[in-house]
Amino acid sequence: MQKSKLIKGYIFAVASAVIYGCMPLMAKYIYADGVSPFSLVLFRNAFALPALAVLALLQCKNLKVPLKELPKMSLIAFLGCCLTPILLFSSYRYIDSGTATVFHFVYPALVVLVGLIFFKQKVPRGNLISIIVCIAGILLFFSPGQKLDAVGVTCALTSGFAYAMYVLLLSGFSDRKTTGYLFCFYVAAISSVIMFIVCIASGEMTLPCTVQGWLLCLLFAMAVTVGAVALFQQSTFIIGGQKTSILSTLEPITGVIVGAIVFGEKLTIRSIIGSVLVISASILIAVFDMRSEKKN
């Protein structure tokens, strides 16, 4: 792979993680305006559709995709953009968001493990070392002695497994002509339909109370779906699911930094060390890749 393309994949993954890390900050203001978590998942997909359609038309000239790819895209949409946030948001009702994030972020290790067992994927030494460093860093965000609820832990862990399957299916998506904003458009459209049904069936359909709330929902959709989701998907297509998953662990670090700056949350020694380890894992990925590129 060309060095410039490799760097592009890294930049996309890191940018995606930073945007995702800022997501809780925006979500807090939207929830305060009367929007439920499930409704926000619906809005973040549905409100992004016009922008994604325009970008897809500019990129591909039309919105056609092979019919045979729709079942795969539907499964990817369900796992990554519907089931994962539903399970993760549900876990917040039983355990705090920081603990839920720790359990959710077992998914980079699951991507490697499931890929190895079921998809016969090779695990480069650099990826293996990085994943160990990364998991060690993430575990430091967990507060010892905290009371854990079994339902909350199960929801958070299952959300990680669902997202791991999403990443593996995404990295194995074979029709490269359907990647880019066209792929994002269809995934968002399918997710919107699924989440609309879920919101109606569960009674979780709530609308913003103010004009500011509507504008925040629109901004959230642009930032997350047109930005973070699209960047994550493109990074996965370029550098693969394993590396993108490891780099995406910069997300909770962004959350910690944003919490400290915006909400005045205290930075602990554990969170600082954990952040250093996760950043080190991301640097290791790049170093091992560049060495491999040099040899080739």
Distance between the termini: 9 Å
Structural class: mainly alpha
Number of domains: 1
| DSSP summary, beta strand count | 0
Strand content: under 5%
Taken in chain order, the helices and strands follow as HHHHHHHHHHHHH
Question: What is the radius of gyration computed over CA atoms, rounded to a whole number of angstroms?
Answer: 19 Å
Q: What spatial form do the alpha-carbon principal axes imply?
A: globular
Number of helices: 13
Which helices and strands occur, and which strands form pairs?
Elements: H1 3-32, H2 37-46, H3 49-60, H4 70-91, H5 97-104, H6 107-118, H7 125-139, H8 150-171, H9 181-202, H10 211-239, H11 241-247, H12 250-262, H13 269-295
Helix pairs in contact: 1-10, 1-11, 1-12, 1-13, 2-4, 2-9, 2-10, 3-9, 4-8, 4-9, 5-8, 6-8, 6-11, 7-13, 10-11
Keywords:
296 residues; mainly alpha; globular
Model description:
The structure is a single chain. The protein has helices spanning 3-32, 37-46, 49-60, 70-91, 97-104, 107-118, 125-139, 150-171, 181-202, 211-239, 241-247, 250-262, 269-295. By secondary structure, the chain is an all-alpha fold. It has one domain. Helix 1 (3-32) runs antiparallel to helix 10 (211-239), helix 5 crosses helix 8 and helix 6 packs across helix 8. The model has no long low-confidence stretch (mean pLDDT 88).
